[in-house]
Here is the input.
Amino acid sequence: MAGESAALLKTPLYEWHVAQGARMTEFAGWAMPLFYTSIIQEHHATRTACGIGDISHMGRLRFEGPGAAVFLAELLTRRVGDLKLGQIRYSLITNYEGGILDDVLVGYYHNEYGQPFYVVVVNAANREKIVRWVHQHLPPQRANAPGQEVVFTDLTRLWAMFAIQGPRAVEVLQPLVDVDLDSMRYYKGHLVRILHPAAQRQGAIISRTGYTGEDGFELAVGASVARAVWEAILEIGKPLGAVPIGLGARDTLRLEAGMPLYGHELTEEINPFEAGLEYTCYLTGYDFPGRDVLKQLQQQPLQKKLVGLELGSRRVARQGCLLFHDQEPVGFVTSGTFSPTLQKSIAMGYVRPEFAEPGTELLVDIRGQREPIRVVALPFYQRNRKKN
Here is the structure.
């Protein structure tokens, strides 16, 4: 990448991306592919066949030891202790004021010796912040406190991670793993062996999760075999219409699916109730940072509410555009794009609760010109799911 800062982190696939002519960009301190052919082409390929993305920049944090379950219960907003083997939950990490530090996935697994461990996947932009937060809250390792030990490892640089998303994802990935993917349920994970000579049956973690609104999987593999596995996935997928996709298509896909992005829909100044994520907050039992504040906020009227927005024109309302009712400011846009699937301009944003009803007509200020914009239900796009 011309002019790339030497300080940028590189995924194990960086050289492959550059060799394929990807348009590289800086994202959260990483050099990442924005697109290979075009955002629209990669978007449509994911909706109709399969998009394969390098998401190695996402943080992967491992917790084990006899105190790991309680530690995570006192760190995350969601219950952890009742997770079944292979189960994954979407959760939040909040600060002491109830603001959102990050949204994460937590999965519960056993290693080959039957010993339990948890993997928490965090946003790339928040990894260093969350690692510091974890260290601040880890229990002291005292010899007179058996049963409370927690072993914490940041695996981000040791592993790569791929997203295999779309209606043909099972066909693309099945030849490379030793579990029946068709029977895997949504938000479930498995430890698997990679069936590829270069991987020498190396272990990996696969989950039926994603960030596109399509069926699909996320696969974490060792960095040393990442490129061989990535190329094998693409080789199998090519006859099925699978293509590599960059961050550009991932953003348009997630926005159509109404999925929040940290730094846009989620920030430390936004609480879970405003973001429509009250289901992630388990406010009885273990005391996590911000729990008591969230209990109070739960009883108070919302100050703002996350909504979907649809423009009548093809202009795009970007993050920060103000929303008006008549001449009165009533909210702001957090994300916006022109939807390749729906062929219309869409956005998400926060408005005062009295203006959050679908069908409400507002105005959005785009570079000094006000355009009609309508509140609509989320998500904008939803696939027909065969599995829960």
User: Anything to note?
Assistant: Helices lie at 14-19, 39-48, 68-73, 127-137, 169-173, 226-237, 247-256, 291-298.
